[in-house]
Write a structure and sequence with these properties.
mainly beta
């Protein structure tokens, strides 16, 4: 009984996080919405380029954000071990696209041009993204 309940909650969570997966794509510049509070004064919000977009998992890997340290052990003779830093994925609901023209975080709107091409536009300044 508890396994079925666990499967249902996983499906619900996947549906909740999957609603924003198409709005951020590879090579977009994004701002992370969850800000880091340091010493009650300094607030850090990071910007970075999307390196990998995973729409099935509703996650993205953003350059310089959510950096994890991996301690590696030398496996072969002559190989070096050490501490490697690499970016870990975050949910797409925590990032927002930054307009290259006005440099503000915005939700992209869609517009169909006269030739039938669908493009993304900025809701704040109206520029084509």
């Amino acid at each position: 009984m508890s396994v079925q309940l666990l499967d249902k909650t996983r499906k619900i969570n996947k549906l909740l996080h999957n609603n924003n997966s198409h709005k951020v794509v590879f090579n977009d510049i994004c701002k992370v919405l969850s800000e880091i509070l340091l010493s009650n004064i300094l607030v850090i919000s990071k910007k970075g380029k999307v390196l990998v977009a995973m729409p099935k998992d509703s996650k993205v890997i953003v350059e310089g954000v959510n950096v994890a340290t991996c301690h590696t052990k030398p496996r072969k003779q002559g190989e070096q071990g050490g501490i490697i830093k690499k970016e870990a994925p975050i949910y797409t609901c925590k990032v927002q696209r930054v307009c290259p023209k006005c440099s503000k975080p915005t939700r992209p709107a869609h517009k169909v041009l006269a030739d039938g091409k669908k493009v993304r536009i900025c809701k704040k300044c109206g520029a084509e993204i």
